[in-house]
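Progress against Task 2.4 (sequence-to-structure conversion) is shown through the following example record, which the project officer requested during the mid-term review.
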Amino acid sequence: MSTMSTTPVEDAMRMKIVKALNPTTLEIYNDSSMHSHHKAMQGSLSKETHFRLVITSEAFKSKMQPARHRMVYALLKEELDRAGGIHALQLRTRTPEEEETQLAREKAEQGQSIVEVQTA
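Structure tokens generated for the chain above:
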């Protein structure tokens, strides 16, 4: 879970996602400052418009990515629909098994790179 300072929209998202999806991983990144200069954001006073979420949950089991994303959109409907609310939401949704597979793949790739460097 993210331990960085939070904001009202981030707090609301965290509460809804934890309650509904009981995630084993929940990372929330507020990328709003990187997009504040965009034309669509001119005049917006909100500092909470662009988020990236990484969610690992058993609730995603046997669901394809579009269905998982719809689950999250439904949970955050209020934040997405509110004037000055969330403008962009990037999602990475996985089951615990998919996360384990990805972590194993990353470890294997790191190990392979180390071997290549040592033998070169």
